[in-house]
Amino acid sequence: MPNELRVVAVLLVLTVAATAAFAQSKPAGYPAKPVKIIVPFPAGGATDILTRVVGQKLSERIGQQMPVDNKPGAGANIGAEAAAKSPPDGYTILMGSIASHSIAVSYYKHLNYDLRRDLASIVMTGAITNVLVVHPALPVRTVKDLIALAKAHPGQLNYASSGTGGLIHLTGALFGQMAKIDIVHVPYKGTALFLPDLLNGQIAMSLDTLPPHLPFIKIGKLRALAVTTAKRSPVLPDLPTIAEAALPGFESVAIYALMAPTGTPKEVIAYLNRETNAALQAPDVREKLSAQGIEP
Length: 296
Hints:
Elements: H1 3-24, E1 36-39, H2 46-62, E2 68-70, H3 77-84, E3 92-97, H4 98-107, H5 115-118, E4 119-134, H6 143-152, E5 158-161, H7 167-179, E6 184-187, H8 191-199, E7 205-209, H9 214-218, E8 223-227, H10 242-245, E9 253-261, H11 266-281, H12 283-291, E10 294-295
Parallel strand pairs: 1-2, 1-3, 5-6, 5-7
Antiparallel strand pairs: 3-9, 4-7, 4-8, 4-9, 4-10
Helix pairs in contact: 2-11
């Protein structure tokens, strides 16, 4: 090997070694106090459940508390804006719904933050199955039954979402469009706020994330008709997908990630990335999330 190539090879080895060492190092003095996680939805929803399970394990790993700060509203934009405008010191991070924040860029004419400019990615945390649920009093057992009922009564069936412009809203809109039915959107600030109305029958249906609805599905207070993902859920393996039940090509999945204000030190982001990935691999975390229909 020529001397020049030997030098390049050695430099490459040293660069890779230095990068690996940097990634494995803990930032000096960090974390020296609790790290707040902003959740842009109310307590009790899927984002909140995911955050609390991961946050608890991550707290154990980094040796600091990780309090959850629920800031719902405006299709997750209130919480996202609060995170984007926080000091970039690693002590405020966001559990963001990638779909909601990505949708917001094109759905809203004016946002008080810029997703690409103001927030830096830390790590993907999970994918959550959405489920089509109806109140048991609704005389339907399948997706085709529901579509037929909606066609017979246009504009009379309503569906709830966790906010205008969010993934759940547009999943319902997609369902209505593909099924060629007229259903009415009723926005709330989060799942926990519309769940009582769904349970008492004021709301007919929702195409929402699975975790908060799962306990009520199991005891019969809600009826699940299908999941919105491309594949069936391991938690409800007998439940078909909407695509196989009635609407080929239908798919909607909620994906989540931790983000930090732009300008947060790279070594802090690398540290949180590594520790969160380790937390997600912990058997007890995977078990808790999988039982809720969340894929770590």
